[in-house]
Amino acid sequence: MQTIFDTIKKVAIKIDHAIKTEDLGYSDSENSSGEDQLKLDVKSDYIIEEAFKDISIVKALVSEEKEGILALHEDGNYTICYDPLDGSSLADVNLSVGSIFGIYAGELKGENLVASAYVVYGPRIELVLAVKGEKPQHYRAQDGLFNFISEITLDEKGKLNAPGGTQQNWADHHKTFVDGLFAEGYRLRYSGGMVPDLHQILLKGGGIFSYPGTTDKPNGKLRQLFEVIPFAFIYEQAGGQSINDKGLRLMDLVPTHPHDTSPCFFGSNYEVNALKAAYGVEN
Ligand code: P6P
Fold first, then answer.
1. Among residues 104, 130, 151, which one ends one of the domains?
2. Burial class (CB in 10 A: 0-12, 13-18, 19+), 107
3. How far apart are the CA of 165 and the centre of ligand 1, in A?
């Protein structure tokens, strides 16, 4: 696993350089979810594929930017599912963006995730690595090297509320839940970038990030294999909860297609339990 983590660190430095020096315009292609691809999306995907293609323990790659599975080494142990530059459209307004990695052993489903990582490209390059049974580890880059900062633990109750999705398309019970937190004094913290939004809640002690099913996106927007499950793992390892709109653990998801999405809620125990009550799914 260390080889994979070391490769992610190298990739992070290269992608950060690309963000700061290359064209922010659109390419003439779409990704598998039908979203227009920025040249940076394509470049970031290329950087990651080039970095992992010669590592023998990597069996295959699954990218948000490409259809299907890229087979690499038949005897490899791990399949890496990744979003090379999540929230990339925010780069041209100088907001933070990120890369997300889910490392799976065997069939691509939540219970087979053995590690996950994400990188935040902002005023600084920051990295969080998580393996089973340990608290997530927070690193910060300095002169091209990542220095360990701390382990991450979520408080039982936080102060931040990150409500995703188009509000006019929320279910009434979801709107009641979100407005209820604001009535309790929670602060709105939502940039439209999953990585910085979830990173902020982890580092600022807690709260909740929600991307529900909506009338326009009944199965949510965020992709299970390379967005939802990797963050669900990190939030659970930090002492929080990660569930879907049925109150089921996101770590129990079994995608039928690499680009399947899921409604998703990540947060501290108090807020996720309050959401379960609002959704009537207290188990
Ligand atoms: P909305 C970025 O496009 C992204 O995939 C995630 O990074 C982010 O959390 C979400 O979409 C934002 O979606 O509908 O709230 O703008």
1. 151
2. exposed
3. 7
